[in-house]
Write a structure and sequence with these properties.
heterodimer; A: 115 residues; mainly beta; 6-stranded mixed sheet; 4-stranded antiparallel sheet; B: 4-stranded antiparallel sheet; 11 strands; 0% helix
């Protein structure tokens, strides 16, 4: 069965520093990959997604993620973080052949941006 | 377009009771999925409905059930509530032909 591993449960970082949140998935079959962000007491917001095509995907607020099939990874990066980026980030995967709209989530990474 | 809406936002029940949660998808979305989020188990898939039919189901007991109406609105029901059912229940809708899901704000269920 497909699984997702987020290697860091918490990542503290200073404002304007770069950050990388790591995500690995278990299966090498064709997958769709997603990053979601959750602010306190809110639902999940889609940050970015990889469905096909270019392996580097970007969000409108400066985050990017690169799909690496050989390493089964989809790490999230931002070159300079802001206080407002403090939130929990979830990596998720779905298998186009594995069932409709069923997302498998990682355990989440709590990003804490300090001034 | 309005986003996914869920009602109620907060709910307190006692053990043994049952509860019904409601989800209205984004206009035009026919797929609705439900997830449970707890500190211990994280985010877990419950089930997914499309055109009033359950297409996929996660590993939850039969106490958890759902349905979808002709207008794509969905309800989730939990019978004989247990303390461990305390969680944030998230609903997500998806446009036809994509695996991209858009989440609502969730319903926070507390079982006492």
């Amino acid at each position: 069965a497909q699984s997702v591993t987020q290697l860091d449960s918490q990542v503290p970082v200073f404002e304007e520093a770069p950050v990388e949140l790591r995500c690995n998935y278990s299966s090498s079959v064709s997958v769709y990959l997603f990053w979601y962000v959750q602010y306190p007491n809110q639902g999940l917001q889609l940050l970015l997604k990889y469905l096909s095509g270019s392996t580097l995907v970007e969000s409108i607020n400066g985050f990017e993620a690169e799909f690496n099939k050989s390493q089964t990874s989809f790490h999230l990066r931002k070159p300079s973080v802001h206080i407002s980026d403090t939130a929990e980030y979830f990596c998720a995967v779905s298998e186009p052949s594995g069932g409709y709209n069923k997302l498998i989530f990682g355990a989440g990474t709590r990003l804490a941006v300090h001034p | 377009k309005a986003g996914v809406t869920q009602t109620p936002r907060y709910l307190i029940k006692t053990r043994g009771q049952q509860v019904t949660l409601s989800c209205s998808p984004i206009s035009g979305h026919r797929s609705v999925s439900w997830y449970q989020q707890t500190p211990g188990q994280g985010l877990q898939f419950l089930f997914e409905y499309f055109s009033e039919t359950q297409r996929n189901k996660g590993n939850f007991p039969g106490r958890f059930s759902g349905r979808q109406f002709s207008n794509s609105r969905s309800e989730m029901n939990v019978s004989t509530l247990e303390l461990g059912d305390s969680a944030l229940y998230l609903c997500a809708s998806s446009p036809t032909g994509t695996d991209t899901q858009y989440f609502g704000p969730g319903t926070r269920l507390t079982v006492l």
